[in-house]
Amino acid sequence: MMKSIAIYNNKGGCGKSTSVINLAYEFAAHSKVLVIDTDGQSNTSRFFIDEPKTYLEDILLGKGGKINTEITRYDNISIVSATAAINNAVGIFSGFSDEKQSAIADKIVNSNSDFDIVIVDLPPAMNVVTAHIVGACDFVFVPVELGTFAIQGIPKVTDVIASCKARFGGAFINKFDKKNSADVALMQMFSELMGDKALATTIPYSKVIKNSISFKTTAREYMGWTNAGKAFGQLADEIRERIGG
Ligand SMILES: Nc1ncnc2c1ncn2[C@@H]1O[C@H](COP(=O)(O)OP(=O)(O)O)[C@@H](O)[C@H]1O
Ligand SMILES: [Mg+2]
User: Fold this and answer.
1) Which of 22, 163, 206, 214 is most buried as measured by Cβ atoms within 10 A of its Cβ?
2) Distance 203 CA to ligand 1 centre (A)
């Protein structure tokens, strides 16, 4: 059965798009994956295809039909991309009844039975469109870049997830620096605060992850023999287990 997850945090730069890209790649080793980019900044779209076109906009405006997806350079990964044009659609969409909004969001996420896993990338600020798309997903996972404010902000993030009527699947640490004693202490706080919602996998801060994206490859393709190159594989396995996918 198809499973859908969204990657969300209201902080920019914590690694949402990086996680979506690398998780999609790892899932694609065993599954047919659909990436849905809802961020008008198009970072994830541009990673996968040269010229993103906003098909999402048409469907948001209720122009019927099956949603258009585009195959990427990876056989098992397709995408619904986002461009800045998506921001125009948000205003019109907001005029629809809540029922219609939910039905459209559900169609975007769940109508494509060709895929095993749908993974949604989000902008930092929720809008009426992203809120309904998150609500249509089975689970939401949250990347956290450690910092006192980031940890204090987690309850706000889980509140937003709940207000979208979505299920919080868990949070994971990204950009972890094991040589930084502050990060080690904050990781302890994170584990205590999150309990069983803390994923065991921690993604290290690494040039492998940072540079791979610049070269338009995933961390595993770039340096799969390193810990950083393998980290998203572990995370994908853990998420798969949590969602029963
Ligand atoms: N684990 C990591 N190690 C090093 N750099 C990272 C890591 N994760 C993300 N980055 C870098 O941090 C920046 C922000 O990441 P991004 O995925 O775009 O965040 P978001 O989508 O949440 O705004 C990018 O330059 C990315 O390459
Ligand atoms: Mg992003």
Assistant:
1) 22
2) 11
- pTM of the predicted model as reported, rounded to 2 decimal places: 0.97
175 lines ligand 1 (CB under 6 A): yes
Label the pairing between strands 70-71 and 77-80: antiparallel
Which ligand lies nearest the alpha carbon of 211?
1
DSSP state of 82: -
Q: What is the pLDDT of residues 163-178, one digit of tens each?
A: 999 999 999 999 999 9
| Residue ranges of domains in the chain | 3-239
Q: Is there an atom of ligand 1 within 6 Å of 18 CB?
A: yes
Å from CA of 57 to ligand 1 middle = 26
Assigned superfamily of 3-239: P-loop containing nucleotide triphosphate hydrolases (3.40.50.300)
CB 7 within 8 A of CB 166: no
